[in-house]
Amino acid sequence: MQYYARMTVQAHHHQHEQWLLEVTAIPTAAGREQRIIAWVKTWVKARRNLALKEDKAGNLLITRKRGGNAKAVPKPLFITAHLDHPAFVVHSIMGDDVLELEFRGGVHDPYFENASIDVFDARDHPHRATITALDSTAKPFKRVKAWLSTPSNAIAAGDIARWAFENEQPLPRIENGLLYTQACDDLAAVAAALSALDAIRSRKGFEHVGVLLTRAEEIGFIGAIAACKLKSVSKQARLLCLENSRSFAESPIGGGPIVRVGDKMSVFNPTITNLVSAIMMEHQKSRPDFKWQRKLMPGGTCEATTFSTYGYESTCLCLPLGNYHNMVDIDGVNAGKRPAKVGPEFISVEDYHGLIEMLIVCAEKMDFADVPSLKTRMESLIKEHGDILRER
Questions:
Q1: What sign does the dihedral 295-296-297-303 (CA atoms) show?
Q2: Residue 206 to residue 360: CA distance in whole angstroms
Q3: Is 47 within the bounds of a domain?
Q4: Same domain for 156 and 199?
């Protein structure tokens, strides 16, 4: 399987990168994910052996169709990612050239000052605007006023807007092994989840693997919480939650995809987290050039915390991310050493391919891993060295 996973990922590099470029360019916001949802529905419709359904919260569940003679399969395994990214939603039209927008997501106040944004109308036409005022105390979300460069009556309440990057080369683009784009978090994970599912969807032994794509993560995991309360997936399901997490010196971009053991709020389910780590250690023995990391990643909170809180066996796999939430040099800005500026998010393309390979290997090995449990290893240790305790 290690050979299959490697060959499959390598053989489909171009297709997986094409999906990465397409998906991360789609405008999206919490509660306003209709564009990326439409892309996913088209993607699933083109694959006859996959089925898609929406739960009552609008989360998407993609599973493999079962034949009439389908045999019993292991407990369900869902790869999860969220469909939104921090962005603006038009709240009201104050004139042909003035808008009031709310910001759904987490970005520090200095980054809003005089920043440029693109507002997308119902026909997906972008309208450039400049932020002229910020009310960071507004509830439930921050509010901004923005002046349109060209007056327009095509914009309506509910339209979304995202940051516009001045003097930036065309996006998305791959340059020197890095993807630069409007929104890696979490759309790069959506592309990885679908790429992995596409690679295994016709193979025996993977009938239990599906994808769960959630909404409104950036405003407090609302879609994931709803999925838990609605029991959209069985309580027997295991969840591999995908994220793009802020990179630090000890979790470098290009160092490989990360088995994330926790975030700033919690540590994840140890059983599945340790199993995934053990699987990857074994995988690396046959693939010494395969890079991966195991890190806490305290730069934010992810849906694995939500699912663990509601009793699911869940953990997180993530891509180290640059310009987290489009904020350039967060530490430098916080220290007052440079002005705040928004910019493209970026990830390593090889990390992305590595994440797809990691997902394929984990899906195959999760129920048949030839690795001893931690308790088995500890029992072996005391059996081998327990006599030393009598030396007193």
A1: positive
A2: 9
A3: yes
A4: no
Q: Return the CATH number at 349.
A: 3.40.630.10
Q: Is residue 10 part of a domain?
A: yes
Confidence (pLDDT) at 368: 77
In which residue are the tokens 């305290």 written?
298
**Structural domain of 269:** 2-85+172-374
Give pLDDT, residue 311.
95
Residues ≥6 apart with Cβ < 8 Å to 185:
85, 243, 244, 321, 324, 325, 345
Contact of 279 with 77, CB cutoff 8 Å = no
- Co-location of 132 and 263 in the same domain: no
Q: What is the largest CA-CA distance in the chain?
A: 87
Residues 104 and 218 in one domain: no
Quick check: is 389 in a domain?
A: no
Beta-strand (E) ranges in the chain?
50-54, 60-64, 77-82, 87-95, 98-104, 116-120, 126-135, 142-148, 160-163, 173-175, 178-181, 209-214, 238-246, 258-260, 293-295, 313-321, 345-348
Residue 244 host element (H or E): strand 238-246
What DSSP string describes 344-355? -EEEEHHHHHHH
How many domains would you assign to the chain?
2
Let me know: does 315 contact 268? Beta carbons within 8 Å. yes
Name the token pair of 286.
């046959």
Enclosing H/E stretch for 358:
helix 349-365
* Residue 72 and residue 11 share a domain: yes
Report residues of the chain scoring pLDDT below 50. Answer: none
Reduced to 3 states (helix: H, G, I; strand: E, B; else coil), residue 342 is strand
Q: Residue 355: what pLDDT?
A: 98
Q: Which pLDDT score, from 0 to 100, does residue 70 have?
A: 53
Residue 382 is assigned to a structural domain of this protein: no
- pTM of the predicted model, to two decimals? 0.93
SS3 77: strand
Do residue 75 and residue 139 come from a single domain?
no
Is residue 309 within 8 A of residue 138, CB to CB? The reply is no
Of residues 332, 344, 346, the one with CA closest to residue 108: 332
CB atoms closer than 10 angstroms to residue 13: 15
Q: Closest Cα to residue 366, out of 275, 237, 270, 257? A: 275
Between CA 120 and CA 133 the distance in angstroms is 20
d(CA 1, CA 12): 16
C-alpha–C-alpha distance, residues 174 and 22, integer Å: 12
